[in-house]
Amino acid sequence: MTVGHVFGYGSLVAATAVARATLRGRRRVWGVAMDNAVAVPGYKVYALPDGTRPALAVAFLDLEEADGAEVDGALLAVDAAALAALDARERQYARVAVTVDPAPAGPVWTYVGRAPGRARVAAGRAGTAPVAIQRSYVALVEAAFAGLGGEALARYRASTEAPPFPVLDLTRIDLPPG
User: Fold this and answer.
1) Is the whole model's pTM more than 0.85, yes or no?
2) What are the tens digits of pLDDT across the range 35-87?
3) Contacting residues for 131 by C-beta, under 8 A, at least 6 apart
4) Superfamily of domain covering 2-174
5) Residue 118: pLDDT above 70?
């Protein structure tokens, strides 16, 4: 049974069951990052093509408040189990209630960066810590928006900050649970 919807504005747009929506008052930025030097059981790390795991933060898309801005994305209908799975997957983010257009029946949530992940990005922007972006993540998000048809990819590119960090060939490695 559906308990609500999640507004995806990055990789979640690649999910199969989506409806287009717009979130106003926010802009899409490279604003949250995970610490690749820390291996958390049941989470992930990233490796370079030579198999080494670089000691850097890996950045992902985030939302920040911005008057007059809007972000296109997709709505995913979720049941309680799917919502719990997304909460676990999006561990660098906090789930917050939002209002989108068009508004579906029931609550809508999205994920915004938590303070530690945002601090890693801030350190990268300040030049005090290395941060990179995974090339295949960029490609996945762009392909997801292209799949929405029409002007979706062009609107995504126009409303998204250009990558402020190096875009690297990094392979995601899912770690086994505890």
Assistant:
1) yes
2) 999 999 999 999 999 999 999 999 999 999 999 999 999 999 999 999 999 99
3) 33, 56, 57, 58, 59, 120, 121, 123, 124, 125, 165
4) Gamma-glutamyl cyclotransferase-like (3.10.490.10)
5) yes
